[in-house]
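Pipeline run #58 for the internal structure catalog. This entry was flagged by the ingest filter as a single-chain record with no existing model, so it goes straight to prediction. Upstream metadata was stripped on purpose; only the residue string is passed forward. Reviewer on rotation: M.T. Logging verbosity set to normal.
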Amino acid sequence: MKLSVSSVFLSLLLAGRSLAATYALSDNFQGNSFFSDFSFQAIADPTHGRVYALRFSIRRPS
């Protein structure tokens, strides 16, 4: 893939903006109240059982 000067410049510009952004913690989920801050729903399985569980070594090879 051939990169142009403008695409490299744009990538560096966007990377710089994201690194310069400030972030603040808006919610703190820890301790005994961890699960009380989530809303759970008793609904039918939307995947109809079509979930594939893989071993960690397969998902993220080292």
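catalog note: Residues 5-20 form the longest helix (16 residues).
catalog note: The chain has two helices and no strands.
status: ready for reviewer M.T.
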